[in-house]
From TrEMBL:
Transmembrane helix keyword on record: yes
Annotated source species: Defluviimonas salinarum
Keyword tags: Membrane, Transmembrane, Transmembrane helix
Official protein name in the record: ABC transporter permease
Chain segments annotated as transmembrane: 69-88
């Protein structure tokens, strides 16, 4: 049983380090998509309008389902591995 707990703690620690990387990467992808969308509809235009467009888009991203799903990318593998280890060792 102690090995399962130790392994679960290790997985949680690794996923805790991985979560910020996934969150930053997801935010970066959203920002790049907004920048491409701006360039497609307003080629060569930069300034306050572009900054406002990006700020509004990122505000919408912060409220999106995609952002809310990111924590599960860190949580679900840890839960799955712990459940599998428990089932293999105790059934």
């Amino acid at each position: 049983m102690m090995q399962i707990i130790r392994f679960a703690v290790l997985i949680v620690a690794i996923m805790s380090l991985l979560y910020p990387v996934i969150a930053i990467f997801s935010r970066s992808l959203a920002l790049e998509a907004l920048e491409r969308k701006w360039e497609a509809s307003h080629p060569g235009v930069v300034g306050v309008e572009r900054d406002n467009f990006l700020a509004e888009g990122m505000a919408a991203y912060r409220k999106s389902l995609r952002r809310r799903i990111v924590p599960f990318a860190a949580l679900l593998p840890a839960v799955a591995v712990a459940a599998i280890a428990y089932l293999v060792n105790h059934t």
